[in-house]
Amino acid sequence: MPVEHSVKKSSRDPVPLYLIPWDPDSQEHVDRMKLQRIACGWKVDQVDSWKDPQRKGQAGLHWVVLHPDHPETSSRLERHFAAYPDEVEALLDTCKTILGRPHEPDPLIPFFSPVGHIALDSVTALPELETSLSNGVLSLMNFYISTALQNLGLGGAAMRSCEKMAKEEFGAKTITLETIANSDVHPDSPRRIALKRPIPTVTNQDWYTRHGYTVYFRKEVAWTDIDEAGNEWPTASSLLRKELV
């Protein structure tokens, strides 16, 4: 479906992204989320379980959408669609509420083509994240940028948009998150070797640290991975936080 925009925002916007809420009651939104989780390689089986928390305002899952006026948007969308042709069809902004607040779609952007997603949740299952909107703490969850568009600064832009939204729209003072610990991805890690995982150029933990997050807790067994021989590998995670000042 072709999309035309007449957004009157500058293409020089330092954050050339929109965050548009995921609609748990739209089958098109649900199907697209499953496609992106398949591309991400994790949690595709959990998408249906995200519907109810999103409706209740406990989860704040948003699509990452390129700014229509940015000079590189067209070429970036072409790259994304070439890698993921099943995502060519644009979605309609139909979500009614987000984190317990009404959502009004931008009439200038009724249709959009997401290149990733990011969640800002007010309730999580991990006590150590200290997630509590009443205490001003939201948690970053389920972050994905199209693999065809990584290393272009879009992840950092999405983070900044999320932080700005958390502070200005929901009054959050802190964002917390969980990611795999550096110890389990370094070159000599027995876990990494057994699971045949590549050596990351930049670890998740270091990437978040570069964006102002600091480690405050380590969980020795956050989840368990299984290698080709059926051996279990407990995986450690690092919990990080950033004060929104």
TrEMBL record:
SUPFAM superfamilies registered for this protein in UniProt: Acyl-CoA N-acyltransferases (Nat)
Domain N-acetyltransferase: 114-182
Molecular function, one GO term: acyltransferase activity, transferring groups other than amino-acyl groups
Signal sequence range: none
Gene3D superfamilies reported in the protein's UniProt record: 3.40.630.30
Transmembrane residue ranges: none
Name of the protein in its database record: N-acetyltransferase domain-containing protein
Species name: Xylaria hypoxylon
Lineage: Eukaryota, Fungi, Dikarya, Ascomycota, Pezizomycotina
